[in-house]
Amino acid sequence: MSSGVPEHSRVRRILRGPRPEAVPALIARACTLVGVLDIAAGVFPRFRHSRMHRMAEVLPGSLGPFAAAMSLSVGILLLLLAHGLRRRKRRAWRSATALLPVGAVAEYVYRHSVIGVLIALALLLPLVLHRGQFDALPDPRSRWRALANFVLMGAGSLGLGLIIVSVHRHRMVGNPSLSARIEHVLYGMFGVEGPVDYTGNTSWTVAFSLGALGLLTAVTTVYLAFRPEHPAARLTEEDEVRLRALLEKHGGRDSLGHFALRRDKAVVFSPSGKAAVTYRVVSGVMLASGDPIGDVEAWPGAIERFMDEARAHSWTPAVMGCSETGGEVWTRETGLDALELGDEAVVDVADFSLSGRAMRNVRQMVKRIERAGYETRVRRVRDLGEGELERIRRAAEDWRGTDTERGFSMALGRIGDPTDGDCLIATAHRVDGVAPGASGRAGTGEGRAEAEAGPYGDLKAVLHFVPWGTDGVSLDLMRRDRSADPGMNELLIVAALRAAPKFGIERVSLNFAMFRSALARGEKIGAGPVLRAWRGLLVFLSRWFQIESLYKFNAKFQPRWEPRFVVYASSRDLPRIGLAAMQAEGFVNLPLPRFLRRPAPAPRPSSHGAAEHGMSATSRA
């Protein structure tokens, strides 16, 4: 990295100093404790040893059940708020300061617990004293949270309700079965009397508590489902124009640069406007992808803006798939850590050849497919007609193979948009009526006879590449007809590499191989037991995530390997970052009910009415 990188951001960061995160975390733990105490007070009849029996005797008989339900409700809400307090959310602070006095009153009225009241007030005091630290802005709102709330709250309420029903065992009439107790909980959550009976006023206490659980689940779910959404961040047309201008000047630096133009990402620019970082927020994790876009000298300014945005919302910052240079700048400017994630396969066109023993398998496969009657065509997107582009879009959608689109850091998310005219498309076609060996000439249509056997004509496979500066391309997606002969991807990659000089392309970035070095070292003679065990785990996980298969596929083309890194704040954040990355890439996905789904955004005017189909690269994700 150039020694002339500005130091102003580091100086400002040192002067500003670290934010005191310990106090919100401590308060969040205390809030969890108070919530558990409130729940216990509302659930267990012998939770405390009361010394105020005489006062209890003069209280109205119906007040006890109401107070029990109130204590239970406040405890559950405090548990839900603890996570927001840990993240310094302002709204969580407001809710907690309102609920704690309510919980204290419920503790006193129902359990006559002076200690419970003191604990609640002891938590309220630091909340008020340190209110300035709870200044984080709210997250973008999503109706996903309504579904998650319904599932988690429903399951938790069912389990807690079963405890409430069972804990009063000495006052039960008879010995109801487990199924009868569960039925009683379900009925009680809807405010209906269930099959379990109790002596005395216990029936009222249980009924009010179960009703409170059901009401909490319903109210919170309805609120999350129908509150006005803060739409997820989107790349505006103005942002896209600025990013394209930066890529035109500096796009050759990073093979993932063009993927910054995904329209489901947000962007922050450096103060000078000469650099930018694109990101998406998933489950409280602010995920950037690849290196910053633009002039390296301006990267620190964009990174500082990124970190300021993460701090303002209390998001966990993370970077997926940055290069070694990008990782050095990120870690130096922010104090974050970096971990090697895998390697990117890059083929230099001038050095590529099918000759030699190392390429024998690829050479034989390509020749066999050519003899089977396939030909290839490699063209720029702008050179295809709208009818053919639409057919390619529909074919890629149909051949996707997964219920949801995948891709975030290494996928563009669309194909055939007029603004992406420099993208490269390689297609494979089944030619009928052609003698074996007469096909296989990339970019030609000689001897072609259209075979209209399927809905997409003779089209059998598609590869889509995005620009990597002016002299390179980066693989975006690979899709093929499952009924086509094996080896379509190898055929099209070879065709693209052969046609590359015609388009002025000197380097081609292929798939990303996660943990490639561990797989390579683990299969060598002399590998230690730890490395072999790690490789064995990766091979096992390959059943679901294509780890080993992508590495072996990439290695066929004898590429050079470029390491890619994940940048993170703390090792304890890695599981959360990994889950967020899997959600962003589409590997973890729960479909929303139709009434909770966000309407699809209307196509931009620049697309001339062409629908944008999310085309992700499962091979690169």
UniProtKB/TrEMBL annotation:
Chloroplast keyword on record: no
A GO cellular component entry from the record: plasma membrane
Keywords for the protein's UniProt record, in alphabetical order: Cell membrane, Membrane, Transmembrane, Transmembrane helix
Keyword Cell division among UniProt keywords: no
GO MF, one example: aminoacyltransferase activity
Domain Phosphatidylglycerol lysyltransferase C-terminal positions: 244-568
GO BP, sorted A to Z: phospholipid homeostasis
InterPro entries for the chain: LPG_synthase_C, PG_lysyltransferase, tRNA-synt_2_TM
Renumbered residue ranges of the record's region Disordered: 600-621
Main location: membrane
Membrane topology: Multi-pass membrane protein
Positions of transmembrane segments: 21-44, 64-85, 115-134, 146-167, 204-226
Intracellular or extracellular location(s): Cell membrane
Ranges for domain Lysyl-tRNA synthetase N-terminal transmembrane region: 21-222
One of the Pfam families matching this protein, by short name: LPG_synthase_C
Name under which the protein is recorded: DUF2156 domain-containing protein
Organism: Streptomyces nodosus
Lineage, top ranks: Bacteria, Bacillati, Actinomycetota, Actinomycetes, Kitasatosporales
